[in-house]
Write a structure and sequence with these properties.
elongated, alpha/beta, Rossmann fold
């Protein structure tokens, strides 16, 4: 690694220098090496502030750069600077693009498709309904060549990553902590699948060893949206962090998509809020493809993640009422009240038939009395 690149790394570790100040330093001094070695007097001339200048002087005198670079090698972590031609073009377009990315991926794996990337995010407290729609949407997106971007948190993020891998696709996990930190620890297997076993790549702008905290997640979220053509919010409360990612997407000129859910669920409020503000309502994968001007043909068209030329498992009903309900749910998951309204059956007949169909493992409850056909 040349000296210039080494000091890009060094600046990435110092907490007082972000993308804006890094650009200021580089533009003023002409090189990152000269910025690193600048005198206190020179640093004061660009109005960094006395406190920050003093903190930087102390940091650069004590920071063990060579040891840090050795640690990167041991962790099999690679770096990409903003000047590197391999730096993601879409991310480079945002005003506050990270000046350096830490990346962990299996050596020699198939190159990720960064031309067709989309973020899928949502609540950590995922419901059965949220899990089902997330899986369906991600399967459909992967089938159309998308790389799935998310934040490797509990809930929707983890489901999105795992579904992408299970569907034979690739996924990018953007962390709000050091790239060597597995957070939450329960995602250790997922971390290995993405960063070590060829499932995609793990990305962070944070230095090694930095533990996650709430203050870091907004910065992480801007990278998730910045890497993506658009952001899909599948489920989330009205204060969900996914809404920050959606807001970043809007500010960055990206598309925002939201999947409606049952009005009885607090985790439908986030998508509902986004839809009211102009997000594209998504009921099927084609809704996303159309908004992004991506053509699809009948042989590859998907409905909520299922191939159009593939039908659901056909179940034999024992009663007329059961068959009516099966026919209703073959189209899409429905709330029990909607089943009553659309089927013409009495509420008691619907409830009794649903109970029997659940016992037969024909249908499943996605939560909040939303039912769908088992796949």
């Amino acid at each position: 690694m040349d000296d210039e690149k080494k000091y890009w790394v060094a600046f990435s570790v110092f907490p007082g220098i972000g993308p804006v100040r890094f650009k200021l330093l580089r533009d003023y001094f002409g090189s990152v090496v000269d910025a690193w070695n600048a005198s206190p007097q020179a640093l004061r001339k660009i109005h960094l502030g006395e406190k920050l200048v003093q903190e930087f002087i102390i940091f650069r005198e004590s920071f063990p750069l060579d040891d840090y670079l050795t640690q990167l090698g041991k962790q099999h972590v690679h770096i990409l600077t903003l000047d590197d031609p391999r730096y993601p073009k879409r991310l480079k377009e945002i005003p506050d693009a990270p000046f350096l990315l830490y990346i962990k991926a299996k050596p020699g794996q198939e190159k990720l498709n960064l031309d067709r990337t989309i973020a899928v995010v949502g609540t950590r407290k995922i419901t059965h309904y949220g899990e089902e729609v997330t899986r369906r949407i991600v399967k459909g997106l992967v089938a159309h060549g998308f790389t799935i971007v998310s934040g490797m948190a509990y809930g929707v993020d983890a489901v999105a990553h795992q579904t992408a891998i299970d569907a034979g696709g690739k996924t990018i996990a953007v962390l709000g902590c050091g790239i060597d930190i597995i957070a939450p620890p329960s995602n250790a297997r997922l971390y290995r699948a993405i960063g070590e076993e060829g499932g995609g790549a793990i990305v962070s702008e944070m230095p090694l060893g930095l533990r996650p905290n709430k203050g870091l997640f907004p910065a992480r979220n801007r990278i998730i949206s910045g890497l993506s053509m658009g952001v899909v919010v599948t489920e989330g409360a009205d204060d969900s962090g996914a809404l920050i990612t959606a807001r970043n997407a809007t500010e960055q000129g990206r598309e925002v998509f939201a999947i409606p859910g049952p009005i009885t669920s607090p985790y439908s409020r986030g998508p509902a809020s986004l839809i009211k503000k102009g997000a594209k309502l998504v009921e099927r994968v084609e809704d996303i493809l159309e908004e992004l001007n991506i053509n699809t043909t009948p042989s590859t068209a998907l409905r909520t993640g299922n191939p159009a030329n593939t039908t659901k498992t056909q179940y034999k009903a024992d009663t007329k009422e059961e068959q009516i309900i099966i026919d209703q749910l073959q189209k899409e998951p429905m709330h029990i009240d909607e089943i009553v309204r659309s089927s013409g059956l009495t509420a008691s007949a619907v409830a009794a038939s649903i109970t029997i169909l659940e016992m037969k493992h024909v249908i499943r409850d996605y939560g909040e009395k939303n039912y769908g056909i088992r796949e």
